[in-house]
Amino acid sequence: MNEIRYEAPTRLEDAVALLAGANGVAKVLAGGTDLLIQMRGGRVAPALLVDIKGIPELTAIVAENGGFRFGAALSCMELIENAEFAAAWPGLTDAVKLIGSVQVKGRASVGGNLCNASPAADSVPALIAAGAVASIAGPGGRREARVEDVATGPGKTSLARGEIVTSFFLPRRPPRSGDAYLRFTPRTEMDIAVVGAGINLTLDEKGVCSQARVSLGAVAERALLVPEAAAALLGSKIDAPALARLGAAASAACRPIDDKRGTREFRIKIAAVLARRAAAIAADRAGRKN
Amino acid sequence: MADAPARVVLISSLCGHYTGGAKEFEIEAQTLYDVIRELDARYPGLGEHLEDETSVAIDGEIHEVGYYHQLRPGCEIFFIPKIEGG
Amino acid sequence: MAKHHISATLNGNAVEYLCETQQTLLEVLRDELHLTGTKEGCGTGDCGACSVTVDARLVCSCLVLAVEAQGKSIQTIEGMAAGEHLHPLQRKFLEHAALQCGVCTPGILIAARSLLERNPDPTEEEVRFWLAGNLCRCTGYNKIVDAVLDAAREMRGN
Amino acid sequence: MDAKTIAPDQKALKVVGTRPVRPDGAPKVTGLARYGADFSLPGMLWGDILRSPHAHARIRSIDTSKARALPGVKAVITAADFPEQKYEFVGPERVAINYWHMTRNVMAREKVLYEGHAVAAVAAVSRAVAAAALRLIAVDYEVLPHVIDVDAAMAPDAPLLFEDMITRGIEPAPDKPSNISKRVELNLGDIEAGFAAADEIVEMNFKTAPVHQGYIEPHACLARFDSGGQGELWSASQGHFVVRAYTAQLLGMNIGDVLVHPAEIGGGFGGKTVIYVEPVAAALSRKSGHPVKIMMSREDVFKATGPTSGSSMTVRIGVKKDGKIVAADGLFKFQAGAFPGSPVMNATMCGFAPYNIANVRSVGYDVVSNRPKSAAYRAPGSPISAFAVESTMDAVAVRIGMDPLKFRLANASRTGTPTAWGPKHAHEGYAETLQALLDHPAYQAPLAKNQGRGVASGFWFNNGGESCATVHVNEDGTVVVATGSMDIGGSRASMAIMAAETLGIAYDRVRAIVADTASIGYTHVTGGSRVTFATGMAVVEACRKVTAELCARAAMIWKVDREDAVWEDGCARHVDKNDKGKSTGKFEPLSLKAIAAKRAVTGGPIVAEAAVNAGGAAPGFASELCEVEVDPETGSVKVLRFIVAQDVGRAIHPSYVEGQLQGGVVQGIGWALNEEYIYDDAGRLLNAGFLDYRIPVASDLPMIETIMVEVPNPNHPFGVKGAGEVNIVPTMAAVANAINHAIGRRLTELPMSPPKVLAALDSGAKG
Known about the structure:
- Chain A is an alpha+beta fold.
- Chain A has helices at 12-21, 35-40, 76-80, 83-88, 90-97, 102-105, 110-115, 123-130, 227-233, 240-253, 264-285, and strands at residues 5-7, 26-29, 48-51, 61-64, 67-71, 133-138, 141-146, 151-153, 156-157, 164-170, 177-184, 195-203, 209-217, 224-225.
- Chain A has three domains: 5-51, Uridine Diphospho-n-acetylenolpyruvylglucosamine Reductase, domain 2; 56-170, Uridine Diphospho-n-acetylenolpyruvylglucosamine Reductase, domain 3; 177-285, 2-Layer Sandwich (Enolase-like, domain 1).
- In chain A, the strands form four sheets. In chain A, strands 4-5-10-6-7 form a five-stranded antiparallel β-sheet. In chain A, strands 11-12-13-14 form a four-stranded antiparallel β-sheet, sandwiched between helices. In chain A, strands 1-3-2 form a three-stranded parallel β-sheet, covered by helices on one side.
- The N and C termini of chain A lie far apart (65 Å).
- By secondary structure, chain C is an alpha+beta fold.
- Chain C contains five helices and five strands; from the N terminus they run E-E-H-E-E-E-H-H-H-H.
- The relative contact order of chain C is 0.15.
- Classes of the chains: A alpha+beta, B alpha+beta, C alpha+beta, D alpha+beta.
């Protein structure tokens, strides 16, 4: 039996040093809800596990420049139980609520959801739409990256050896902004997104869309930022024609596969439906007058 | 005294195997034992098949095959497939 | 190999155990500590039969490494009743016949208690969504939801 | 949750029909109850099983030497460690026990026939060592072409699982082998003349996916077998007596040398009436000289244990304009899995059973393919044919513009109605379930856009059969009732209720237990909805022997003739047999407790046993109403409301009967909407887990409303018919008919998952 070393450092630099200096496969352990299943299934056989939950800044949630910063290893339950955060980012909160069961959310983290790099990760399209920035620490020091630039493909990230995503920053939004995330699954819960759509937008005094970000999940090798879809909303009152253009742009951006969770054709159709519905919810949250 | 004989029907599609296709019989019997013995006498091996592989409906009531079943004069007996539940 | 020596609190009592890194909390609870009330239904966090709380947080013990429990407080089904006095949820599950085979019951009771600690007056929909991570194949969930709502009513004292 | 008793009570019942707490309740809510995986013994080893990565392959050789050499490994076995079984001829009607097949399913011999098929097993000092040892076993496979789908498996050029299998049930026998293990046919009347007389004929084709029973407890057992040729098993099954018989047979042991302890069972639904791990653990224990525990993983449960069959079906129904059905024709092709034995015979029998039809033909095929061998699942076979028949019935009702419940009522079978399998129906109950739905306000309630309402019905043979019970009167007048029936959902409570009722004492004076295979006589499986009926009859008979004995003891105490003592309301009372058995009042009645106190001086312990082969089980009928809302943009179906009306004969413990109805319906909803096996091109299962094999979760469902129709069965002392199975029979069709009502599209393939519903919406085809 090959031994697995377990370390639970309380200082970030120690964690980085452990990961950078490891010989053999080294894995970051946050919630473990993906990693433990991969280990059980024999898909990963790490020589070292670095448990980062003991590092204070990785499980903190703080206000920063009118925005929010939360630790990458903070459990989903702790995040969604934060009333201020839920009020400020209802769409992202909805997305995090959809990550597995209450039990899974009691362990799983948004950092893990991103770094596991599943194209279907629920929090990722919502983070991308929100314009979230990931803080990363590594042997070369600290850096920042847009969330859409972290995952590069199924199970693959742009993180260098020894790098850890430490926290996410969500900037303050202009007034009359709203975000929403919707996903499609056959069951109401305990399911993996067949398609996910995250939208974050801002309306001007007249109710015209002045800013928008649209992101789609599970329709490509990674969650996509879809500027063409956002463009369909800009300058509109999120009315029927704009929503139709949004749906068309969303479908056009899809490059999905057939798999056990959905067909290519189905995903392309549903992407349009969810994008339209998410945009309507976001607009209402932004205070649109109907 | 000659009671009305029992009407005996074999619906088991296997029975053709033993009876060369014959399916309906009239048999003088007081108990199911008499019926099974009589059929086995006519078609050697059929008796054991009926005991092991079928259930029996006597006037519509379904039972496990048993020698002890008393038969009323003129009753209807169907040997039917065994039902396996979940 | 060198095993980890873990000190934790289990159902209110200090406990120590040895474990290997890859051993889950579920495995240690059942195989080392012989508390078999916590069940393995899937081993992948999809059925909730192994639900326990760690520092009052509801989790699947199949998705927690035993080594992670160092210094933590673990609650299992064996610690739910106070001596001979059943927890109201346990009593209501019996009164409502909310179990058939009963193998999912310990996990559901732990999950339901965790819900009522946060939300003493849940709606039927809130109960159904909170318990979505606990599969039951026998009951269709009806009587489980009834029992949880009734227990909540009693615990609120009306 | 109202219970509707159709027939008036023959006599007032005091305990039957009440809802007491089950005797085994407290251990099950405190975690103390012990299930299959919860037993351990000193020196115990962990067993693990190596499984085939291929759907179909010939085993050239297995090299276990490296595994045996690994420190901590105490035994390694393959099929060579099990005696060969002789090929037994069994009739094509039966879901039969064929040990030649069974031993090969437990451990592959010449070939592996599905991904997950067991090929070898190890026992080691830890789970980790056992897992490592499996990786050291080298199996040389010759991979063969495979076939998954039933229609493909029936094609003339299909790869053969058994090169010498000749279809049974066809005279003369075919000269070529095939994957078709048997053909069955039932006939009533003249099918061609029937259709010739029809004004309208509807014919439709259907496909259903295999679905797993989905019990939450994976198969698990602990075995302690010794070199002296004896052994003990702690096993969670639906029948510890059949586990004993099968295990003894597969190990070449005498039945009497195997003792099986009934662990609590974590769900079965038919899937635990067969064995997988028990003989393997036993063989490992015998070889290693240590106790051995095996727990299946959830992945193994999906890949290697029996789902119910998938199917391909055609149903044709002919009617007169007035709604009278004149002919019905069904073709049912069932996947048996890797070995013969699908429930297709049940399907052919049950499909048209609810209806009075003069001309019926029902043809079934049992077909093997490279997937796990099918096992029983809740009313095996009947829900599958009912999906086809009840969907077609709905289409016929639409075609002739008749209310679907009234259409069924007009054709409902009653006592004396002939059946396709021969005998006439001997019991009522179906029409009452239809009437219960017709009378329900929900049936006429308005529906919103994209909502629809559907109904369907079903039939199932509740079973009887062999059961044993022992009743002991304790020194203090309490009573122990022991039976051989595994308690899978409250049967201890129903046994205690029937005993208390018969003895005339309080429920809490009776304790019901499940005895091991050495402590009670043979009792058939907990399945076929038979326990409350058959084992209940044994319990009542044993209690009556006890009351007779109590009367004899009372007569001795009073020094009167035996015939002058009768048992009434829990007491022996003195009567005058010469005066029409009038009560004399000469002696104070003697309670059970009082007589128990005198047991020694009146002859010693008061104990009675009863062994029955229960006959006269009455069939179960159910009718169901489903309301759905369909999302026209995604094809997602939400069940808004569900009502099940089932004839249960009599509900002994109504809460547990309601639970059976609710549970069966929800399993049917999963079967209807999401559950399926997804295979890749190599025949490997892609969704072997609860994440992607989607059984319903609490938030998917509404409350399931139950109507317990009670038309008592005169053949049971309390009128029991059986409640466990028929509730799942109509469900898939009820959902499909509701979807058709909502969107005007007839879904004919299960599951009716969102992509299929959306495709139907996008296609022009109106249902």
